[in-house]
Amino acid sequence: MRMYDIIEKKRDGFELDSEEIRYFITEYCSGNIPDYQAAALLMAIFLRGMNERETADLTTIMAHSGDMVDLSEIPGIKADKHSTGGVGDKTTLILAPIVAACGIPVAKMSGRGLGHTGGTIDKLEAIPGFNTAISREVFIKNVKETGISIAGQTGNLAPADKKIYALRDVTATVNNISLIASSIMSKKLASGADRIVLDVKTGSGAFMKSLEDSVKLAREMVKIGENTGRRTVAVVTDMDIPLGYAVGNSLEIIEAIEALKNKGPRDLMEVSFELAARLLEICELGTLDECKQMVREAVESGRAILKLEELIERQGGNKRVINDYSLFPQAAYKYDYISQYDGYIASMKTDTIGVASLELGAGRETKESSIDYAAGILFRKKTGDHVEKGDIIASLYTNKQEKISPACALLDKAIHFCESKPEIKPLILAYIDNK
């Protein structure tokens, strides 16, 4: 078998068989296929596409390129959730304790942020002492005993995806439905859960900008999950506005805690509760309405916030942060971003807002960049809200004073105004289920 022939076959629009895909993944990961040939095949796939079978094969082979997490020691159905990434998206921090409080084990491996979107692991590490680099044995033990654990992805979880994604990132071959779906789902399959709910974001702050493309991606991922024996559903949610009011690691953890105390922003709680209920439903705890009631009861009774406290304590964190937010890292500088207009906020370019938060220190431009856990943006006003000249739209937090001016310049570009109240889209835009 020759890589040249595989490239030529896909270039001409033909379907690759399982052995050709396996050859590419295995030999590329072994260092026997040079980057220029791998890049050529990725571009051919980008332009010609892959069918459902090819995509499922690519996903499964990438998943098996490294460790496959075995959760069989944990009794019952194991649940997982994945978001395609957004700004202010801290839903995992809310959903996981709720689902665990309802009796479904949550064994979640999460990633770090890169670019304008944040990562769950970075957020959790804003909690003093919280350890995301726990061993596989401790991870399993915690889920068995408490029903919940959230850890960083191991270096050998779907290593083929990591190597291929790095090449896609520099060859303009990222934005292809089959390649995106296989990248996400290979890690989910390797993580070992039985039931998966996918939060597919759409809009200016999302990876997929159009609703049509977001639904296509959701359908592709659900098919992969179902075709590989994992019950999978997807919810397509709006990301044209930051989710909640907080953008930045410590700020987002605090907002998630407030949501679990039943005092969070309406939009954040609506999306988190919907995802939690959908996950409970596919875990066969009842009808959707019954599962929504379970979610509300878990929060209102205080069981969900106690589960978060248990998670923090088990992984070495200071659980007192739940009631004392001063224990989080504090920013040396706070700056209020003031409205220069009277009227309504017409729209927010959410990805630019994410970049503004990154500029303040809340994110990383490269994998080697360090994070300022105190940095970020706390909004007072969002799309649809009325503002008067001189009103505070947002407060900026950072430990680098020189970053305030460029962050404000980005907010100037991101926030647009109008005279009349704009129409706001629903938060929940589609639900995808193969059943």
TrEMBL record:
<dbReference type="GO" id="GO:0009032">
    <property type="term" value="F:thymidine phosphorylase activity"/>
</dbReference>
<dbReference type="InterPro" id="IPR017459">
    <property type="entry name" value="Glycosyl_Trfase_fam3_N_dom"/>
</dbReference>
<dbReference type="Pfam" id="PF02885">
    <property type="entry name" value="Glycos_trans_3N"/>
</dbReference>
<dbReference type="GO" id="GO:0003723">
    <property type="term" value="F:RNA binding"/>
</dbReference>
<dbReference type="Pfam" id="PF07831">
    <property type="entry name" value="PYNP_C"/>
</dbReference>
<protein>
    <recommendedName>
        <fullName>Pyrimidine-nucleoside phosphorylase</fullName>
        <ecNumber>2.4.2.2</ecNumber>
    </recommendedName>
</protein>
<dbReference type="GO" id="GO:0004645">
    <property type="term" value="F:1,4-alpha-oligoglucan phosphorylase activity"/>
</dbReference>
<dbReference type="InterPro" id="IPR018090">
    <property type="entry name" value="Pyrmidine_PPas_bac/euk"/>
</dbReference>
<dbReference type="GO" id="GO:0006412">
    <property type="term" value="P:translation"/>
</dbReference>
<comment type="subunit">
    <text>Homodimer.</text>
</comment>
<keyword id="KW-0689">Ribosomal protein</keyword>
<dbReference type="InterPro" id="IPR036320">
    <property type="entry name" value="Glycosyl_Trfase_fam3_N_dom_sf"/>
</dbReference>
<dbReference type="GO" id="GO:0003735">
    <property type="term" value="F:structural constituent of ribosome"/>
</dbReference>
<dbReference type="InterPro" id="IPR035902">
    <property type="entry name" value="Nuc_phospho_transferase"/>
</dbReference>
<dbReference type="InterPro" id="IPR013810">
    <property type="entry name" value="Ribosomal_uS5_N"/>
</dbReference>
<dbReference type="InterPro" id="IPR000053">
    <property type="entry name" value="Thymidine/pyrmidine_PPase"/>
</dbReference>
<keyword id="KW-0328">Glycosyltransferase</keyword>
<dbReference type="GO" id="GO:1990904">
    <property type="term" value="C:ribonucleoprotein complex"/>
</dbReference>
<dbReference type="GO" id="GO:0005829">
    <property type="term" value="C:cytosol"/>
</dbReference>
<keyword id="KW-0687">Ribonucleoprotein</keyword>
<comment type="function">
    <text>Catalyzes phosphorolysis of the pyrimidine nucleosides uridine, thymidine and 2'-deoxyuridine with the formation of the corresponding pyrimidine base and ribose-1-phosphate.</text>
</comment>
<dbReference type="InterPro" id="IPR013102">
    <property type="entry name" value="PYNP_C"/>
</dbReference>
<dbReference type="InterPro" id="IPR000312">
    <property type="entry name" value="Glycosyl_Trfase_fam3"/>
</dbReference>
<comment type="similarity">
    <text>Belongs to the thymidine/pyrimidine-nucleoside phosphorylase family.</text>
</comment>
<keyword id="KW-0808">Transferase</keyword>
<dbReference type="GO" id="GO:0006213">
    <property type="term" value="P:pyrimidine nucleoside metabolic process"/>
</dbReference>
<dbReference type="InterPro" id="IPR017872">
    <property type="entry name" value="Pyrmidine_PPase_CS"/>
</dbReference>
<dbReference type="InterPro" id="IPR036566">
    <property type="entry name" value="PYNP-like_C_sf"/>
</dbReference>
<dbReference type="GO" id="GO:0005840">
    <property type="term" value="C:ribosome"/>
</dbReference>
<dbReference type="Pfam" id="PF00591">
    <property type="entry name" value="Glycos_transf_3"/>
</dbReference>
<dbReference type="GO" id="GO:0006206">
    <property type="term" value="P:pyrimidine nucleobase metabolic process"/>
</dbReference>
<feature type="domain" description="S5 DRBM">
    <location>
        <begin position="208"/>
        <end position="271"/>
    </location>
</feature>
